[in-house]
Design a protein that fits this description.
The complex is a heterodimer of chains A (about 550) and B (about 70). Chain A is mainly alpha-helical. Chain A has helices at about 5-25, 30, 40-60, 70-85, 90-100, 110, 115-120, 125-140, 155-180, 190-195, 200-230, 230-245, 260-275, 280-285, 290-295, 295-320, 335-355, 375-385, 400-415, 435-465, 475-490, 505-520, 520-535; strands at about 325-330, 330-335, 425, 430. Chain A has a two-stranded antiparallel ribbon. A two-stranded antiparallel ribbon of chain A has the order 3-4. In chain A, β3 and β4 form a beta hairpin. The radius of gyration of chain A is 23 Å and the shape is globular. Residues about 180-200 of chain A have low confidence and may be disordered. The model of chain B has no long low-confidence stretch (mean pLDDT about 85). In chain B, about 15% of the residues are buried. Chain B has helices at about 10-15, 20-40, 45-74. Chain B is flat. The chains are: A mainly alpha (about 550), B mainly alpha (about 70). At the A-B interface, α11 and α12 of A face α2 and α3 of B.
Amino acid sequence: MPDRLGTIARDLGRMLEALAGLIFISILIPLVWREFWVVPAMAIAGIVPLLIGLSLNRSFRHAADPGRLHGMMIAASGWFLVAIFGSVPFLLISWTAQLDPAILDVPARFTASGTRTFSTLAAFQNPLNGFFESMSGFTGTGLTMTDNEAALPHTLQWWRSFIEWVGGVGVIVLTTAILARPGSGSLTLYESEARSEKIHPSIVSTVRTIWWIFLLFTFFSILLLWIAGMPMWDAINHAMTGLATGGFSITDNSIGTYNSVAIDFALIPVMILGSIAFPIHYLVLQGDLRNFYSDLQTRWVFIFFGIGTLVLTAVLFDQGFYHTETITVAGIALQGQAATLFQTFRYSLFQFVSAASCTGFQTALSLGPGWTAPAQLTVAFGMVVGAAAGSTVGGIKLIRLLTLGKGILFRIRGVFYPSDAVRTFSLDGRSLSDEEAAQEFEEAAIITFLWLIFLALAAFVFMLALPLGPGPDAFTVENVLFEVASAQGNVGLSSGITGPGMPTVTKVMFLFNMWIGRLEIIPVLVLLRGVFAALEVYE
Amino acid sequence: MMQLEDIPVVGPLLNAGADDRVFDALLVLGPVIIIAIALLGRNTASVALAVAYTAGFTVYIGYKAIRRTPERKT
């Protein structure tokens, strides 16, 4: 086997060992909740990746250290592999309930067919549904094959939240260590001069820094949500998925279940924490608060969230969608227009931040069919753009649009200068040479272009596979575009298309969209090129 | 004398942690407080504990920012 494959196989083995560790740790949950019937399923789900991981790691332990090209291939194949093995708990637990062995004493609500609880868990008997849920979790998307999250065993509720949380840490490592580069980053990493650069030292130190920041934020978020009134189990799960901007919920109607002003507002800083680049968090935690406004991306996160919220509030207020007679907030009674304006602002702020941070939490009466097209378009725009690169968000990312916007202005202004004029392009305080600037524009343009291409491809597949037009079971083109943008942006807001009953081809398409969306496309294409080259498909 | 770093589990945790005593303490105390609250339920003491943790975290960042400002000026 070529040494390059040995390197990849060894690191994939390590990832599977880590996944097994996560599954074994999660066995604490059924012990705490006395769901002993899921323990054998979880144990087997952990043993399988452990054995494969050990075997790969030992077989290739002498392989060379990975360079950045390997890093991209390991990240792309690792995410896919981990999502596959991460689906095993869903599969085995649902089949345990189906087979109902007497020795395990499975609760009747999971075995009595015909109930919603049974059908919710039974959906995972189809391995593709479990794989979808797992990929949605590890990519931080939040689209789900679950009909009623509240009906799931606590162990699966935890596993869904845990994989989103771990996926959130993973993507920060990916974008700050493997794809690290100011701007958009990925393309130059597999150019020849970068190939020999070793990534392990930077990844180890990056992971160490990220883990304590992420853990600290998680504890803070859990306690904040609990203070706001959420039960502790709910707070733990929603803090993990909110911070990872994943959006899985353990309630049937997401955050709308609580219908609480305090909880809505408590989740805003949690989602914003996940939307800011983690290197900036590090500096802020050192006391350098200037980064909130001096860093280009972070500044624009707040500007973008602010403008989007105001636009959405204006549109929905004009529509009068959240007409309210009276509401009491922090002991103050609001009436008439003031009450309506407050309610509109509350839902607009939550929904826009949830969309642009790519979290995907939903609140009561939001995104329903009553919203006008401009309101839905505003939310859709938020989730296509996303927030800061180097954070847990999906989407195209603000920095790429800012690079493209500034680049276009730079080129247009250049027409008015003499051809021999020396001009410097400045981005986020960095002065770039012509060559560097061209590279930045090129990278941002390529990723944005590819993002739109794959979006269009998925929309095309969905339009072929789904019934379109009027009617109770049909979907509109807007529904399709919204759902596809949500999947590829790793957002998780749904127009109602995603569910266990959707056609297989659309599930497979979404698996691909979520995967490339999380890895920012290029690493997946690098991996596929490597596979095709190895198989001599186009040689 | 036995150091905090010598304690099993806590030692490796601190070594991999924030290199800041307060953040390290918050990292160690976080799960302890969450478990305590889960066991105690919602009452005045548990709410006070949660508020103290979240307020302590935010106030400490503010404190670090204030301490940092004169350093930058000099």
